[in-house]
Amino acid sequence: MAVKTRGKPSAPRIGITTSRSRGDDYYIPYRKAVQAAGAVPVDLPVGTRELPDVDGLLLPGGWDVDPALYGEEPDRRLGEVDRELDDTELRLFKQARSEGLPVLGICRGQQVINVALGGSLVQHLDDHDARAIGRSHLAHGITVSPTSELGRAAGASMLRVNSLHHQAVRELAPGLIESARGDDGTVEGLETSDGLVVAVQCHPEELTVDMPWARTLFERFVARAGSHTPRS
To answer: Which of 89, 149, 188, 205 is catalytic?
Structure first.
């Protein structure tokens, strides 16, 4: 368990898991989005054993999740996996839950959360990765539950979002609530009933300049982190 060694700073500290194999530039949009929302980003490299003094955890996009973690053999279309990253994020997510920290999962992060809590994934979806068009390209629509955290951030029941993935949630884990669904039936958002875990399949860090809901999603996450009280 992380030990708090100092008082809470004026700005919440948000841990962001990182992978050497992705390169540092990949994480810049996440750091910028966290900073713009009023928090301090803290990199958590692969192999981090315990959460440091942070107030929230962000699980970003990245490589595919090892299907062995949800009891499946690899599909031939499975992309690159990083089992050490998987293990690091699963460990830190479970610690964040035990300490009552807010968690935001993005793309792969949503998938990691689902696997951590006992769900499974679709290993490959055709025609979902639109990064060749542009990371901020609004590829498709999603329907959002208005009472969900994503719905409150969006202030709308329909959104256009980007799409940079080829995996998705298959079986929703116990304890998770679906908050958004794509036009094709893909789970595009999930959360826990206590509101501390929120995840989206799209990449809002790429949309904060033009999409108010994306900025608000980060701002609400940072606000939850700022009001976090450690569990005894």
So the answer is: 205
Ramachandran sector of residue 45 (left: φ over 0; alpha: ψ -120 to 50; beta: rest)? beta
**So what's the architecture of 13-226 in CATH?**
3-Layer(aba) Sandwich (3.40)
Active site residue 203: yes
pLDDT band at 228 (very low <50, low <70, confident <90, very high): confident
Cβ proximity of 60 and 82 under 8 Å? no
Type of residue numbered 213: W
Question: Which residue out of 203, 206, 219, 228 is catalytically annotated?
Answer: 203
**pTM of the predicted structure, to 2 decimals:** 0.91
Q: Which helix (H) or strand (E) holds 177?
A: strand 176-182
CA distance 165 to 121: 12
- Known active-site residue 166: no
